[in-house]
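A student in our group prepared the protein record below, which I am reviewing. What it holds is a sequence and that sequence's fold in token form. My question to you is simply how this chain folds and whether the tokens agree. Do not assume that whoever made the record got everything right. I have pasted the whole thing underneath without changing anything:
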Amino acid sequence: MNSLRYPFLVLLGLLIFLPILSVAYQSISAPSEHIAFIFQNLMASYAVNSLKLMTVVGLTTLIIGISSAWAVSRYNFPGRGIFEWLLIIPMAFPPYIMAYTYTDFLDVAGPVQTTLRDITGLGAREMWFPNIRSLGGAAFVMSICLYPYIYMLARTAFMTQTASQIDAAKMLGAGNTRQFFTIALPSARPYILAGLSLVMMETLADFGTVSYFGIQVFSSGIYKAWASYSDPVAAAQLSICLIIPTLILFAVEKYNRENMKFDTDDGTRQNQGFHTHISKPMQFLALLTCTIPVTLGFILPFTLLLIMAGGHITSSLNIGVLFDAFQNTIMFGIITSIMAIIMTLICLYVLFTSRALKKYGAICAS
């Protein structure tokens, strides 16, 4: 088995890096007819909009993910055990589906603005309302879909922190706020940065949401270069511009993961007495902290989708086509999961059994 270790890892590395190498080769394979025009007229908007979107989504997901993770892992309040898992569900919604749903709900012809106009008597041009078809709208949609990345890792960090640290802080008179900012948050920083890196990568790679809202970012620019300009070389060169910040984020996350290590107690010690009883107003605040993201990220959009689906069911609905689509989706998910598990197990096997290949295996596993 040891003799097969290196070939397996080489094959896995090729499968992982071949698409990137293919894009790199495509970017220099021939001169581009449109890349000069893109750099002169569109590149600045691509870069600025991508940076704005990453910043807003990053900050929003940090606030939602950390606050909700701290609430469920630290405090006792009604429904804590349920919210512990409900807060993960918004990840199941693709951002572009969320974009369609909220646009139908909040757009000019949607029920919210229509109701407000009926109440106020104002016309569509007279009443101001935030435009969902904007960079802010895209950031909102992505944030409520992607915050679980940070929530899950932050919750894991808070739950595995040593209870002795919290006990020592209490004995020294530190309140809940000070415990959070001086002990819990610094200790959880590697986990949070790892989650934030995933959020940033997902934001950069998203195409459906930004395309639907008409926002000019790198992902939409790549598609436009390929489909509208029929210039695959320009698309490949823009893809390189997208890959570079992704690799930087990966390097930052890996650096933090390797250079920040914290001790933890055994599982019994971690969980005993960790959840603190709080006052009624604080319970309400913790409940609100968890209810808002679950409502915006799952309950409301799921309800809206059910209403929209129920209002368009007709006798011509082809159940067979829907079943085939559902079956293909399930099979695709199962096959992808199995392949991901196999690749991960191979990387982990090499990572933990071979010193010579440890670094290369760590890169593939990451």
